[in-house]
Amino acid sequence: MKTNSIEIFPSLEEFRNLSVKGNLVPVFAILSSDNDTPVQVFQKLRTEYSFLLESAERTGQMGRYSFVGRNPVVIFRSSGKTITITEGGNIQTFEVKDDPLSELERFMSRYRYVPITGLPQFTGGAVGYLGYEAVCSFEPKKLKVAKNDVLATPENIFMIAEQVVCFDHLERRLYLISNASIADGDVAGAYEKACREVVELANSLQKPPNLPYVSYQNKIPEISFKSNLTEGRFKEMVGEAKKLILSGDIIQVVLSQRFEVEYTGDPLHLYRTLWMVNPSPYMFCITFGNELSIVGGSPEVHVKCIDGKVQIRPIAGTRKRGETPEKDAELAVELLEDPKEQAEHVMLLDLARNDIGRIAKYGSVKVTEKFQIERFSHVMHIVSNVVGEKLDGLSSYDVMRASFPAGTVSGAPKVRAMQIISELELDKRGVYSGAVGYFGFDGNLDSCIALRTVVIKDGKAYVQAGAGIVHESTPEGEFEETRNKARGMLLAIARANAM
């Protein structure tokens, strides 16, 4: 079908044939992607609830795909066992016996998606975050939610997006996608509505961009921040954790502190400065109305399940980047030879194997990379890669549940480590150390750990960072590690505040 010089796929006849297979069919147009950047498209299209998902390769260059979504048809949020679903102006709140992730899976099962060959890996679905405390719903008899809820954010929010714009940077293509939801057998009506939405997306892209320049600054702006913990209290926590490790209660636990900064700017400005100072494999800017926004550059996949192939890529072991190539190489050797860092990484590699083993076919779990150095803007890490094949009959929601939260942000044994976290940290973590990503209409899952993530709420920006405590840890070293991990985010906030 052609409308306003845009060719829309599939044709009505092809759409009718596809609709026999399900009730959700992608309708799309393909344009050249050289007119706009993903940030410009997000700025032109965004509504109260919108998202921008991108990826920077290890070299800092842009990954293959970027995704922009707006105008979700459903907002799914939960705290504890209470679910709130907003759909078409109607708000429904109810209690569930199962965990909220099971309810999201049941809700998403209404969509019987019909895939079309050649489209990008994500064409729509549930986009948002699963907060750290969601694990208390997965293990209700063993885990209790921390007492202090300072940020008061929902444990989970997902927006179900039927309209998505996808950049394919390799092919230099721009896909404008509207997933046609077929209700009451009105195939032609669903198709015509989706075609109109594709045209509306194209027309919106004709608007000129309205973005201020982001200036590269040699001078680092000053920023005033405060932590939810004093240096002394954090070091006390490390000491208490080490006593538990020495007694054999645990092997490792990840303890964190949260930094608070004044921020009343646009989340998109912060996202742009973050790209400058901390490009990462998982970049995101997600706005949840007036409630909150999250902006992040996470280095670490939480779990990925694409066409039944499951991947976890544990990161553990950290050093600051060197000021010269020679110093950088020296620090990398020092990191790999550090017994404390080795012990921490081996532990988390074993956790990743165990997590995938819970939902994988027998014999399919493999370590494909081991003890590799990956460099980011301010730090370097030791990284490994674990893969497996999902068992038949399980879903991507089962994969998420089996691996949540990541061992990287909890410890080992995982449940006991989380019990200690709630005892020592006292404050709810919220978004931090949970998962950010999507459950696609096609059943696929891609998510990152909510690290290097800024939560923007009520004129404040919050950054949280943790350190893995093991037998060889020192209170001074672990305190400094949390500051190093937060440094890139705090710098991005300072630059965004200066815009």
Automatic annotation (TrEMBL):
Upper classification of the organism: Bacteria, Candidatus Nomuraibacteriota
Pathway stated in the Swiss-Prot or TrEMBL entry: Amino-acid biosynthesis; L-tryptophan biosynthesis; L-tryptophan from chorismate: step 1/5
Pfam families noted in UniProt: Anth_synt_I_N (PF04715), Chorismate_bind (PF00425)
Source organism: Candidatus Nomurabacteria bacterium RIFCSPHIGHO2_01_FULL_42_15
Residue intervals of the Anthranilate synthase component I N-terminal domain: 34-176
InterPro entries: ADC_synthase, Anth_synth_I-like, Anth_synth_I_N, Anth_synth_I_PabB, Chorismate_C
Name of the protein described by the UniProt record: Anthranilate synthase component 1
Name of the gene: trpE
Cofactor: Mg(2+)
Subunit composition and interactions: Heterotetramer consisting of two non-identical subunits: a beta subunit (TrpG) and a large alpha subunit (TrpE).
SUPFAM superfamilies: ADC synthase (SSF56322)
Functional summary from the UniProt entry: Part of a heterotetrameric complex that catalyzes the two-step biosynthesis of anthranilate, an intermediate in the biosynthesis of L-tryptophan. In the first step, the glutamine-binding beta subunit (TrpG) of anthranilate synthase (AS) provides the glutamine amidotransferase activity which generates ammonia as a substrate that, along with chorismate, is used in the second step, catalyzed by the large alpha subunit of AS (TrpE) to produce anthranilate. In the absence of TrpG, TrpE can synthesize anthranilate directly from chorismate and high concentrations of ammonia.
Chorismate-utilising enzyme C-terminal domain residues: 233-485
NCBIfam families reported in the protein's UniProt record: trpE_most (TIGR00564)
GO terms for biological process, alphabetical: L-tryptophan biosynthetic process
